């Protein structure tokens, strides 16, 4: 075998090794990107849930501050509690991804 043919064989083998490394690196990059997207969606969902909860609690608090002068009936309390429970439920329910 001539030195040129041997060199060609070594270059082909080296090229195959680089191709395999590139494929593995690309796969690892894809897994990392998928993980990053998953975490970003989780953070977004939690942020949205917290914002909804804070808005619900703030609205509930302002509603109580306005009604300090007159005491609400038991029916209004039940309705207000149901409204608060509904907003908490909407904040923490599982959303399809």
Walk me through this protein's architecture.
The protein has 2 helices and no strands. 86% of the residues lie in helices and 0% in strands. It has one domain. Helix 1 runs antiparallel to helix 2. By secondary structure, it is mostly helical. The two termini are 60 Å apart.
Write down how many β-strands occur, each being a DSSP E stretch of 2 or more residues: 0
What proportion of the residues form beta strands (DSSP E)?
under 5%
Shape: rod-shaped
Gyration radius, rounded: 30 Å
Mean pLDDT score: 82
Largest sheet: none
The level of helicity is over 70%
Helical/strand content category: mainly alpha
Distance between the termini: 60 Å
Which sequence of SSEs, written as H and E, runs from N to C?
HH
Number of helices: 2
Low-confidence residue ranges: none
The figure for the number of domains is 1
Summarize the structure.
This protein has helices spanning 3-66, 74-92. By secondary structure, it is mainly α. Helix 1 runs antiparallel to helix 2.
What brief labels describe this structure?
mainly alpha, 0% strand, 97 residues, 86% helix, rod-shaped
């Amino acid at each position: 075998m001539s030195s040129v043919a041997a060199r060609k064989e070594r270059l082909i083998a080296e090229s195959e090794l680089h191709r395999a490394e590139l494929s593995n690196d690309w796969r690892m990059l894809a897994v990392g990107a998928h993980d990053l997207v998953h975490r970003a969606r989780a953070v977004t969902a939690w942020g949205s849930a917290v914002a909804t909860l804070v808005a619900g609690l703030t609205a509930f608090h302002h509603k109580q501050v306005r009604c300090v002068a007159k005491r609400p009936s038991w029916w209004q309390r039940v309705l207000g509690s149901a409204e608060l429970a509904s907003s908490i439920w909407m904040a923490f329910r599982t959303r399809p991804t």
